[in-house]
Amino acid sequence: MDLTLSPEQEAIRDAIRGVLMERSPLTRVRAVVAAEPGIDPDLWRVAGELSWLGLAAPEAAGGAGYGLPEAMLLFFELGRTLAPGPWLGTVLAAELGAPDAAAEVLAGRCRVAVIDDPADRLGAGVRLEGEARHVSDAGAADALLVLGARAVRWCPARAAGVAVDPAPSLDPTRRLARVTFAGAAAVGLDADAARLRLAATVLVAAEAVGVAERALELSVEYGKVRQQFGRPIGSFQAIKHRCADMAVRAEAARSLTVYAAVAVRDGEPDAAVAVHGAKALAGRAALANATDNVQNHGGMGYTWEADAHLYLKRAHLLEQTFGPRAAHLDALAAPWRAA
Amino acid sequence: MEIRFSPAEEAFRAEARAWIEANKPRGPRPDDLRARRAYDCAWQRAMYEAGWAGIAWPKEYGGRGATLMEQLVWFEEYARAGAPDLSTLFVGLNHAGPTLIACGSAEQKAYHLPRILRGDVVWCQGFSEPNAGSDLAALQTRAVIDGDHLVVTGQKIWTSFGHVAEFQELLVRTDPEAPKHKGITWVICEMGLPGMEIRPIKTLAGNSDFCEVFYDGVRIPLGNVVGRLNDGWRVAMATLSFERGTAFIPEQVRLARRVEELAELARTVPGPRGQARAIDDDEVARRLATFRAEVAAMRAMTYRSLSLAARTGVPGAEASLIRLFFSELVQRIDALAMELLAGAGIAGDGPAGEWPERYLTGLSQTIGGGTKEIQRNIIGERLLGLPR
Question: How, if at all, do strands B196-201 and B184-190 pair?
């Protein structure tokens, strides 16, 4: 048993963090999302060159040959930096191998938005019909990955019968779209939808962990430098104890997310429980820590200029991605509620 | 990253499981303190004779010398089997013994360690005072050197099992002029010496597991000082470097089981909005499910912390996060039980079982061993680096 990062995993984490800090600081993120296409093509090119998108894809298919835990490391960092773009769908598609576009997906040239459709509201087969709302980054996507109850479908975003319309988004760094299918022809992928949904949920949880941890760091940094009453505000227990609570939430969420990633990779019997728990706790940690971080920054925290609101808004988006907390808690409680 | 244990660790698990299952005490632990002491000592003796005593103690001191992973496995199996917690032997095995191993003289080790391991003796703690709780270093119990003795005068409090103990790990002030952390001495005090008076304290849960101890000119041989005179603060802290959080695992496993018991309770008592079963209430179900996620997270935190310690050789600072998380989680779980029990909770009848007592004793979780406020200070200052 070992839930620490191996030296190789640490190197992966450090490399990703280094590139994102250099190429995608929040000043850059703000500029990118204020213009079209709302993502940074250079960053995506570099992500392709550095095999970020194919971390969990098999080597034979051109990926890096790692697994879900290594992809999770990427999403921790994406949560910390709020780098724009449809990372989740692209990483999932890279692992599955996209029809006729595998190399393009791995290279970051074909970007993929994922649509979570657990109740098959868009249909269970390869002909898609209906409307998916609040799809993250579909406007910047070249293809759509539709994750149904049992089927996983691939559909080019500009195929006949597919309309992608921008929709308002609370989160300025992640755009939303409404995707309407009118008998669009999709391609069924040979994939285990249940496992893919667990993997996707782990990655969303990881992104939420990144948000929770970064919000904590920002509060601690501010608590050390901001002076009131002649002392740094971090010396006051009202702030210090809140930061301690933020640390507990983040650590609990990170630990369970790491556990869940390994459990899904290895097909452990408790994988689903760990994933539901991880998403519930990580979502809560992101929301609570980001909210506390606004408060810890006082008046500055209330401004558009400060970064605190960006983390809070991302936390809300993540909470609504691959199931809100209540849905995951209901899944955890289901065995108890059976007659 | 790996959550499976190695084949050698699984073999160790099988061996531990089989032995515990075959040898654990069958009857319930008695309430009467003297009988409870005898029960604890007999079980400790059985573990000692089979080579399982002092699982984390080094082999040269008679312990098992188990690796961190083996300790984890042992404590998981121990709790899973429902084996009794250390109770009256806790201070000796997890506190005084490790302190003596770290700082004791050869004579002190040779005399005390085997007795502790065999379950011959009960130790208690004499650290806190009425005016030195969270601010432990403010302790005022005085010890003056007189020939080859320390003469102790003062008062200690919150001394668990003081009335059934043979020895006490006692912190006294030997240099009142020095800064408060510098004038403290750690000394072994034999219980029942002339000038000592032990009075039980009744807790809000109605039991009297702990005491206050009064010292009026109690003479303790200087040879009982552990470490050097006036170096007691460092000695007391040395224990912490030995204790890497594995002894805390049984409590965590028990807590996971407690959540399952609470879910079972929620299937038998009516819901708050008139449902036949409380579990059919969405809010109740989600609160329970949150507990399920939280105990899973606590286990993952412990696994992560232990694997970090196994890799680096130093205990992780996350231990304080786990401790705080655990203590508040216990209280949330017990509070929901009281809510679900409704009238039965306040009457202590019907399906109440042990819940009301657990709820009451659980209130100590965020006080004993450092209040939750102190834990938050530690996290804020030592882990996060916030200014004092």
Answer: unpaired
Q: What does the alpha-carbon distance between residue B157 and residue B367 come to, in Å, rounded to a whole number?
A: 14
DSSP B125: E
- Can you give the pLDDT at residue B242? 58
Same domain, B340 and B250: yes
Whether B243 is catalytic is yes
The answer, yes or no, to whether ipTM is higher than 0.95 is: yes
pTM of the model: 0.96
Q: Find residues 236-275 of chain A whose CB sits inside 8 Å of chain B.
A: 237, 239-241, 243-245, 247-248, 251-256, 258-259, 261-263, 266, 268, 270, 273-274
Half-sphere exposure of A5 (CA within 13 A, CB side): 14
The answer as to whether B61 is a domain residue is yes
Domain interval for residue B29: 7-85
Residue-wise pLDDT for A162-215, tens only, equals 999 999 999 999 999 999 999 999 999 999 999 999 999 999 999 999 999 999
Question: Are domains A7-191 and A194-337 of this chain identical in fold?
Answer: no
Is B116 within a domain? no
- How far does B259 lie from chain A, in Å, by closest CA? 11
Show the low-confidence residues of chain B (pLDDT under 70): 240-245
Measured torsion, CA atoms of residues B188, B191, B197, B202, in degrees rounded to the nearest 10: 100
**Domain spanning A7-191 has what CATH number?**
1.10.540.10
pLDDT at B319: 85
| DSSP conformational letter for A2 | B
